[in-house]
């Protein structure tokens, strides 16, 4: 697609900020396809997890998913990138793998035993809010702007609405145990995301993901062993829908979805990429309603509007000029990668 060079773009060659170049290829068919993949594939992972945990214990399901991704991708990416991870790289991968995948994705998988997949996706959007809080509280952190503070208040008000009085809005309130686990998962994901930007990951983003997947997968499988999940787990008892769900999570959720996400990070702006956080829960709610008989009640609709409004306020608020490019990039949520 031909792109007209504007005076702003011309002036950028003289050392001024380039304002249009990041949009130059934002509407090519491949970029649009990558956005569609991130929107639809990651939005559908919540239903896949829900189907998977029907006959596979949650820690084993998440562990098999991430361990398989790590074992497959790591040797391929080592060969293609020629990057040799250092001990510091592995240390960062272990820490972030445990925070992001063991606590984060493992928590989501456990919660989906008692929380509908659509509601889970909605609550997981709180990662955007927890990122602000963690980035504020860390040493040398950034105090949030008033617009962001309003978003934080609205977001937690939306969660309170979901766990409010029973029968309000034509539905039961969400199980408090599941909400608590999801909030812990989101907090851990935010901590891992902030740490990964400053903790010495390898220069190849995909190789770093493979290392995190391997580390997190090992932690999840060990946790499944120690918690007794393997004692009650039998491969013969796993239904074919759960096997299909696991394969879907590995291939489409982790491999294809993540590749599409990293691609649009390179080809589009952070603000546009961040829209996936608004689309994914809507996709998850619709899929849960269509295929898992999950109810979309008045309570759910109002809470969704409140929480997603909060996310919009946070991701559209002006931020300080970052020291590193990665500070601008939105991060995937714990139910997706």
Write a structural description:
It is found in: Membrane. Belongs to the EamA transporter family. Keywords: Membrane, Transmembrane, Transmembrane helix. The protein is an all-alpha fold. It has one domain. The protein is 67% helix and 0% strand. The protein is built from 13 helices and no strands. The protein has helices at residues 7-12, 29-52, 58-81, 87-111, 117-124, 127-137, 146-162, 176-198, 205-226, 240-267, 270-273, 276-291, 298-316. α7 (146-162) runs antiparallel to α13 (298-316). The longest helix has 28 residues, at 240-267. It is globular, with a radius of gyration of 20 Å. The two termini are 31 Å apart. 46% of the residues are buried.
Mean pLDDT: 87
Number of domains: 1
Number of helices: 13
Task: Sum up the overall morphology in one term.
Answer: globular
End-to-end C-alpha gap: 31 Å
Strand content: under 5%
Q: Find the count of extended strands (DSSP E, 2+ residues).
A: 0
Sequence stretches where pLDDT stays below 50 over 5 or more residues: 1-25, 322-328
Main beta sheet, described?
none
> SSE string, helix = H, strand = E?
HHHHHHHHHHHHH
What is the structural class? mainly alpha
Helix content: 55-70%
Radius of gyration: 20 Å
Main location: membrane
Organism: Candidatus Acidiferrum panamense
Protein name: EamA family transporter
Membrane topology: Multi-pass membrane protein
């Amino acid at each position: 697609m031909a792109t007209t060079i504007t005076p702003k773009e011309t002036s950028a060659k003289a050392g001024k900020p380039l304002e249009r170049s990041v949009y130059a290829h934002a509407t090519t068919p491949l970029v649009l396809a990558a956005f569609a993949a991130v929107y639809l594939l990651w939005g559908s992972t919540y239903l896949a997890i829900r189907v998977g945990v029907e006959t596979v214990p949650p820690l084993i399901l998440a562990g098999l998913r991430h361990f398989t991704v790590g074992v497959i991708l790591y040797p391929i990416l080592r060969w293609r990138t020629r990057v040799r991870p250092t001990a510091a790289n592995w240390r960062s991968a272990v820490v972030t793998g445990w925070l992001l995948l063991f606590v984060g994705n493992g928590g989501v998988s456990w919660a989906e035993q008692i929380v509908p997949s659509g509601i889970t996706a909605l609550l997981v959007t709180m990662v955007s809010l927890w990122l602000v809080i963690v980035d504020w509280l860390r040493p040398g952190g950034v105090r949030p702007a008033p617009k962001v503070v309003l978003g934080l208040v609205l977001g937690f008000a939306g969660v309170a609405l979901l766990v409010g009085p029973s029968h309000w809005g034509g539905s039961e309130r969400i199980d408090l145990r599941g909400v608590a686990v999801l909030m812990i998962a989101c907090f851990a994901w935010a901590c891992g995301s902030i740490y990964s930007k400053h903790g010495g990951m390898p220069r190849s983003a995909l190789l770093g993901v493979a290392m995190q997947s391997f580390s997190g997968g090992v932690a999840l499988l060990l946790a499944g062993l120690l918690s007794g999940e393997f004692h009650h787990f039998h491969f013969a008892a796993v239904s074919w829908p759960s096997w299909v769900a696991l394969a879907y999570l590995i291939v489409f959720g982790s491999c294809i979805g993540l590749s599409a996400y990293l691609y649009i990070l390179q080809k589009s702006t952070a603000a546009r990429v961040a829209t996936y956080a608004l689309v994914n829960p809507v996709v998850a709610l619709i899929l849960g309603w269509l295929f898992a008989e999950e109810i979309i009640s008045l309570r759910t609709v109002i809470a969704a509007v409140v929480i997603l409004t909060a996310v919009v306020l946070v991701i559209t608020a002006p931020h300080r000029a970052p020291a590193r490019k990665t500070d601008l990039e939105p991060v995937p949520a714990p139910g997706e990668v």
